[in-house]
């Protein structure tokens, strides 16, 4: 039995195929038609599905993909989960935050964890060694910082950061690049330091598109496919509950 984990994001959709808990393949597409052809290309294999969406209706997505409804799960905060949500407003909790927390707990089941998802926003989530999710923080991501400077001022240009900028910007453009990038990195490093002071023994897991700007370090792990790993963990947990 294969697990098909579908993560519908703001700009593209990822399909992760798992077998016995191992990630076998990852594909990214920008439309549902392409995703449908990927799923239907493996007709001879029995599958379970889970759909996670940050914006679109996951039920509508599953209908468009013509998935086997008897083997389909939609990620929701109130479904059975391998972690315990202690968040005060779980109904407002993003599906990607739930999935990444479950992925981290699968990889490091006995540790205190700080999960940092560096995407459009930066989210910080603390999961204790008992598997309880407590929440953390949300702040603007790298691209959002650049857009804010451009959109909320009259003369600052829009910049896109494709390589690590120099520390001392010698033009307005390079000064924005330096401020945005180094502020982004300094914030994350500072938050990590504060969590380490408070919780001591702590593993840090980074994911999201801008996690590429960080190198693995002492108890710091960069795991780009953490959300997919979490979706597989949630799907397996729910399938086993039915047995």
Automatic annotation (TrEMBL):
SUPFAM superfamilies: Actin-like ATPase domain (SSF53067). It catalyses: (R)-pantothenate + ATP = (R)-4'-phosphopantothenate + ADP + H(+). GO terms for biological process: coenzyme A biosynthetic process. ATP binds at residues 7-14, 120. Pathway: Cofactor biosynthesis; coenzyme A biosynthesis; CoA from (R)-pantothenate: step 1/5. Keywords: ATP-binding, Coenzyme A biosynthesis, Cytoplasm, Kinase, Metal-binding, Nucleotide-binding, Potassium, Transferase. Pfam families: Pan_kinase (PF03309). Substrate binds at residues 87, 94-97, 172. It is found in: Cytoplasm. Belongs to the type III pantothenate kinase family. HAMAP family: Pantothen_kinase_3 (MF_01274). Homodimer. Catalyzes the phosphorylation of pantothenate (Pan), the first step in CoA biosynthesis. This is Type III pantothenate kinase. The lineage of its organism: Bacteria, Pseudomonadati, Bacteroidota, Cytophagia, Cytophagales. The gene is coaX.
């Amino acid at each position: 039995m294969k697990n098909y984990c579908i993560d519908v994001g703001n700009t593209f959709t990822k399909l992760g195929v798992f077998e016995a808990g191992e990630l076998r393949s990852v594909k990214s597409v920008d439309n549902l038609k392409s995703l449908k052809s990927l799923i239907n290309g493996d007709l001879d294999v029995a599958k379970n599905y889970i759909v996670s969406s940050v914006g679109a209706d996951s039920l509508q997505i599953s209908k468009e993909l013509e998935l086997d409804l008897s083997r389909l799960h939609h990620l929701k905060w109130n479904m059975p989960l391998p972690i315990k949500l202690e968040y005060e407003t779980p109904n407002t909790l993003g599906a990607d935050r739930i999935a990444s927390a479950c992925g981290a707990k699968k990889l490091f089941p006995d540790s205190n964890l700080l999960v940092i998802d560096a995407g459009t926003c930066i989210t910080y989530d603390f999961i204790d060694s008992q598997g309880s999710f407590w929440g953390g923080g949300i702040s603007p991501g790298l691209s959002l910082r650049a857009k804010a400077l451009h959109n909320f001022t009259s003369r600052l240009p829009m910049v896109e950061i494709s390589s690590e900028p120099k520390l001392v910007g010698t033009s307005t453009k390079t000064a924005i690049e330096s401020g945005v990038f180094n502020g982004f990195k300094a914030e994350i490093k500072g938050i990590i330091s504060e969590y380490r002071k408070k919780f001591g023994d702590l593993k840090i897991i980074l994911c999201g598109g801008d996690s590429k700007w960080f190198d693995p370090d002492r108890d710091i792990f960069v795991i780009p496919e953490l959300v997919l790993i979490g979706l597989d963990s949630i799907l397996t947990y729910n399938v086993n509950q039915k047995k």
